[in-house]
Amino acid sequence: MCMVIFAPLFAIFAFATCGGYSGQLKVSVDCQNKTDSDLSVGIEFAYPFRLHQVYFDAPTCDGKRRERLFLIGDYSSSAEFFVTIAVFAFLYSLGATVVYIFYQNKYRENNRGPLIDFIVTVVFSFMWLVSSSAWAKGLSDVKTATDPSEVLLLMSACKVQSNKCLPLHKPVWASLNTSVVFGFLNFVLWAGNIWFVFKETGWHSSTQRYPSSTTEKQPSGYNQQSYNQGRYEQENIGQSGGTNPPGDFGQQSNYGQVGGYGQVGYAPSEPASFAN
Q1: CB 69 within 8 A of CB 55
Q2: Most buried residue, 11, 39, 191, 221, by most Cβ within 10 Å?
């Protein structure tokens, strides 16, 4: 039931907070010649974070001439992979919810539904872990590439000590940080659901049935073995001539012939006399 409620919701939050992001940073370039200064250079970027295509015009502090610069890095692969997994997870969880509610009989028919659900759940759990880890690393690189202090190093005017270059405004990362959190929450949710989906498959019922049958058969076999062993011992005693009457200890020579170990005899002993 948790998957029905939270899986589509968490997936929406994951791809919405990442795919809908746009940020801006600002720097200030104060030239020695004040007329050439630009105290608010704005740079905008957005998903899918192909920063090498983001450009801006910066003052050179050499007259009115400006230079066009590009940010560094392409982090679209990890971002797009993360959003793709989130979208497909949303669509599958939404379709699975419809099947659970309206087509429960067909879902359990021939045990195909639970088996497919189990395999897909395992795959999505692994994909959420991989995509969230990759996007967390990609986000860290995006933060570094768009740091205003790093951007100032790209400007030729900021390499002259007489000019003053300062960062004014950093991008807001709350939305992207939230996307990473929801990515790992989706992994926990899907991985935790593996056990519940496995219980609905035929594999779980088969593993529960065979150990119980083995333990039930073991005592009966043990009792039968004990019974046969006791019966065998009674037959050996009967074939060996039975037990000797009390006081007839001299007839124990027959014991030496049993089993073929050798004919060992004992001489009959005279009765002890108690008279002096």
Answers
A1: yes
A2: 11
3 state DSSP class of 73: coil
State the pTM of this model.
0.70
Instruction: Provide φ and ψ at 27, rounded to 5°.
Output: -130, 160
H/E segment holding residue 65: none
DSSP secondary structure code for residue 270 in this structure:
P
Task: Give every CB contact of residue 10 below 8 A, 6+ residues apart in sequence.
Answer: 182, 185, 186, 189
Cα dist from 249 to 183, 218, 223, whole Å: 90, 44, 36
CA distances from 175 to 15, 23, 55, 57 (A): 11, 10, 23, 27
**Which stretches of 68-201 are DSSP H helices?**
76-102, 104-108, 112-145, 148-152, 174-199
Q: Are strands 38-46 and 22-30 parallel, antiparallel or unpaired?
A: antiparallel
42 pairs with which residues across the strands? 26
Nearest to 3 by CA among 154, 121, 135: 121
Q: Please identify every stretch of the chain with a pLDDT value under 70, giving residue numbers as ranges.
A: 1-4, 202-276
115/137 Cα distance (integer angstroms): 34
CA–CA separation, 49 vs 23, rounded Å? Answer: 10
How many alpha carbons lie under 13 Å from residue 259 in its C-beta half-sphere?
Answer: 6
Task: Give the pLDDT of residue 250.
Answer: 40
31 in helix, strand or coil? coil
Is the Cβ–Cβ distance between 183 and 16 less than 8 Å?
Answer: no
Distance CA 137, CA 32 (A): 40
Token digits for 169?
Answer: 């405004």
- Contact 176/97 with Cβ under 8 angstroms? no
